[in-house]
Amino acid sequence: MTQDMLLGNEEPSKSKETFLEKFCLLAKAATTTSALLDVIRQALEAPNVFVFGELLAEPSVAQLKDSEDAKHFETLNLFAYGTYKDYRSQPEKYIELTPAMQKKLQHLTIVSLAIKAKSIPYALLLSELEIDNVRHLEDIIIEAIYADIIHGKLFQNTRVLEVDYAQGRDIPPGYTSQIVETLQAWVNSCYSVSNCIDMQIKYANAEKSKRILNKERVEQDLINLKKVLKSQASDSDESMQIDTHGPGTSGGLGQSELRKKPSKLRNPRSAAAVGLKFSK
């Protein structure tokens, strides 16, 4: 049985950005540290906020990194760039997550996996989300689909999540240079492919020209051969006409002479009789 959870091809609406802007404004307006920490916790629990880069960039939030409230900064950093396994590996580094926060972090982990691969086995999802129940896993995936951060289908027979779309996550600091290098490598690869195609086109055109010239040469040779054969056939016909109707060249008798000769030798006995009678 296949469960189709495709929600459409449209990209997420800009309402998520609006929600994030609201928390950025609240962070700017916070006059005390406790108020700022409360804003951070609200952003982490908010169901429609899945990017946190702008909030991290707020000066008041950045100052928390080296303060006694650094756990709030690290937790916000975790939700921006990390995964559920990162949290489980060092839970003491972060604030205690509420059930809503944990579920959101699991949703973000699914997004990270969906960005890397379009076909995600259940086994990998169960491992990354540290879930031992397939039904629970499917519920979390369906929640992520309805949250509009991924589009895809659940194939229960093959136990695979096929992803059609995944929302992008925040880009870690210093990662931009890696993106530039990746894009440059892609551009260089495109140039190489383009040059290879140009060479193949030139080779194909040269081969085509050779074939055309060869074809023209063969056709001309055929025309010349036909002319020679026709000329030889004409000479042969003329020669045969001369041998059949012309005078003999070997001293033999012609046809008219051959027809006349037998008439002189007709009735040899009569001639003998006449000869005998004359001798008496």
Outline:
The chain has 12 helices and 4 strands, in the order βαααααααβααββααα. By secondary structure, it is an alpha+beta fold. A hairpin with a 4-residue loop joins strand 3 and strand 4.
Radius of gyration: 51 Å
Terminal Cα separation, in Å? Answer: 140 Å
H/E element sequence = EHHHHHHHEHHEEHHH
Q: What is the strand tally?
A: 4
Structural class: alpha+beta
Task: Write up this protein.
This protein has twelve helices and four strands. It has about 280 residues and is an alpha+beta fold. It folds into two domains: about 1-165, no CATH class; about 175-230. It has a four-stranded antiparallel sheet. Residues about 1-15 and about 270-280 have low confidence and may be disordered.
Protein topology:
Layout: E1 2-3, H1 15-29, H2 33-45, H3 53-56, H4 59-62, H5 70-81, H6 84-89, H7 99-116, E2 119-121, H8 122-129, H9 134-146, E3 150-155, E4 160-166, H10 176-245, H11 255-264, H12 268-279
Antiparallel strand pairs: 1-3, 2-4, 3-4
Helix pairs in contact: 1-2, 7-9
